[in-house]
Amino acid sequence: MPPVIADPALLRVLIVLATTQLIAWGTLSLPAVIGRAMAADLGMDLTAIFASTTVLYMSMGLCSPLLARPFIKHGGRRVMIAGTLLAAPGYALLAAAQGPLSYYAAWLLLGIAGSATLSTASYIVLNEVAGLRARSAIGALMLVTGLSSSIFWPITSALSAHVGWRTTCLLYSGLLLAVSLPLFVFLLPRRVHDHLSPATGATESGPVAVPARSTFYLLVGASGLNAFVAFGMGAVLIELLKAEGLSAAEAIGFGSLLGVIQISARVIDFLGGGRWDGITTAIVAGLALPAAMLLLMLSHGSHAAIAMFMLIYGLGSGALAVARATMPLVFYDKAAFAKASAQIGLPMNLLSAVAAPILVELLTRYGSNAPLALSLVCSCAAVAMLLLLRQRRPSRATAS
Questions:
Q1: What is the C-alpha to C-alpha distance for residues 372 and 320, in angstroms, rounded to an integer?
Q2: Which of 152, 62, 75, 74 lies closest to 114 in space, CA to CA?
Q3: Which residues contact 217 (CB under 8 A, 6 or more apart)?
Q4: What residue range is the signal peptide (predicted)?
Q5: pLDDT band per the 50, 70, 90 thresholds, residue 206
Q6: From CA 338, how far away is CA 72, in angstroms rounded?
Q7: Do the beta carbons of residue 222 and residue 349 sit within 8 Å?
Q8: Cβ atoms 329, 135 nearer than 8 A
Q9: Is residue 129 within 8 Å of 116, Cβ to Cβ?
Q10: Residue 100 to residues 48, 56, 58, 96, 173: CA-CA distances in angstroms?
Q11: H helices of the chain, where?
Q12: How far apart are CA 53 and CA 56, in angstroms?
C-alpha cells in the first residue's frame, strides 16, 4: 500500500483539509491574542472574554451527536460546507458585538459551526476517502494543523494592530467564504456511496461485527479523560511553570517548546507507517503523562526536571492527539466510524470545556501540585481503560 502522500487524489484532499483546518482553528484563537483589546472595547473583564472557550466547546459538544445522521446520510463534505456557511456570520456577529450577550451569542454560533467543520468532520471525510489508509491520512493532517496557532497568532496580532479587532473578525469571515468554502465545494470529492448499511455495518465483503456498547463507553472515557488533561494543561501551563518557581520569561521559553515537541511526536507516529494502531499509540503515550506529572510534582523547581517534564509530556500529549482521532478506526468502519466519532464528540468537548476552569481554580487555590495530582489520576484512569480496550481489539486490527 503506497504512502498517503504518494496518492495524488488523497494528497489533494489532505491539502484542502490542512488549509481549511489551519484557517478554522487559527481564526478561533482570537481571544488568546487580542483578548485584552476585546475586553476593553466590550466593557468585560479578561476572565469573561476567555469564557468564550467554554461556550465554544460546550456548543460543539452538544451539537456533535446531532450531526451523526447528517454525516452518514450526506457525507462529510456537505456537512463541512454547511458549517462554513454558518461560521462566516458567526464572525460577523462577533465583529458587531456590543456586550456579553451578543459576544457569547457569536461564540455559540461559532461552536455550532465548529461541530460541523473542525477536527471530527475532517477525520470523517478522510475515512470516506482513504479507507484503510485513514489512520495514516489523519496522522498526516495533524502534522500540519498543529501549527495553526504559530501561523495565525502573529497574523491576528498584526491585523488587529492595523485595522482593529472588529475588522479582523470581518476579514476572517471573508476568509472562510473566499478560501475555505470554494475548497470544500470544488476540490473535495463527492462521496462515493458504497454498499454499507449504517444500521448493521454490513458491506459487500460481509458483515462487520458491531462492538459492544461497553467498548464505546471505554473509548469515550479514555478519549475524554485524556482530552481533559490536554486542554486543561494547555491552558494553565505557563502559570503552572511560574508556580514551580520559573520567571515569566523562563515559563514562556519552556512553554514555547511544547508545540515543537508535540509535532515531533506526531511525526514519529506518522513515520511508523501503520505498523501499530491507535490503541497501541494511546497506551504508550498515555503512560508518559502520569510519569511526567509525577516528575514535575517531585521537581522542586529544578530546571532539568522541568525540561524533562516538557519533553515527556509533550511527546505523550502530541501522540495522544493522533490516538484520540484514530482509536475509533480500530473498532468501526465507514458509517459506523462517522456515528461513533460524532457521539464521542459530546463528552470529549464538554470535558475540554470545563478543564481549564477546574485546573485554574485548583492552581490558584491549592498550588501547582493540585492540578498535577488531578491530571495524574485522570491519566492513570485513561490508561486503565485503554488496557481494557486492548483486550477487545478485533482480530482484523491485530492482524493489520
A1: 18
A2: 62
A3: none
A4: none
A5: very low
A6: 6
A7: no
A8: yes
A9: no
A10: 8, 14, 17, 12, 20
A11: 8-27, 30-42, 46-50, 52-63, 68-74, 76-95, 100-117, 119-130, 134-145, 148-163, 165-175, 181-187, 213-243, 248-271, 278-297, 303-331, 334-366, 369-391, 395-399
A12: 5
CB 235 within 8 A of CB 355: yes
Place of cell 503523562: 289
Q: C-alpha grid cell for residue 70? A: 447528517
Cell triple for 164: 482593529
- Rounded CA separation 257/88 (Å): 33
Task: Please name which of 382, 376, 357 lies closest in space to residue 236, comparing C-alpha atoms.
Answer: 357
Cell of 153: 497568532
- C-alpha 283/C-alpha 278 separation (Å) is 9
Cell of 204: 459487500
pLDDT per residue as tens digits for the range 33-49: 888 899 999 999 887 88
Residue with cell 506526531: 266
What is the longest distance spanned by two Cα atoms in the chain? 61
Number of Cβ within a 10 Å radius of residue 191: 14
CA distances from 269 to 12, 45, 54, 364 (A): 22, 41, 30, 36
- The pLDDT tens digits of the residues spanning 152-164 come to 888 998 999 999 9
Q: For the whole prediction, is pTM greater than 0.90?
A: no
Task: Give Cα 343 distance to the centre of its chain.
Answer: 15
What the block records as the C-alpha cell of 350 is: 464538554
Angle at 173 between CA 163 and CA 43, to 5 degrees: 55
Of the candidates 149, 86, 151, which has an alpha carbon nearest to the alpha carbon of residue 112? 86
For residue 276, which of 364, 393, 357, 162 has the smallest C-alpha distance?
393
Angle ∠(369,313,64) on CA atoms, nearest 5: 95
d(CA 346, CA 213): 16
Note whether 281 and 322 are within 8 A (CB).
yes
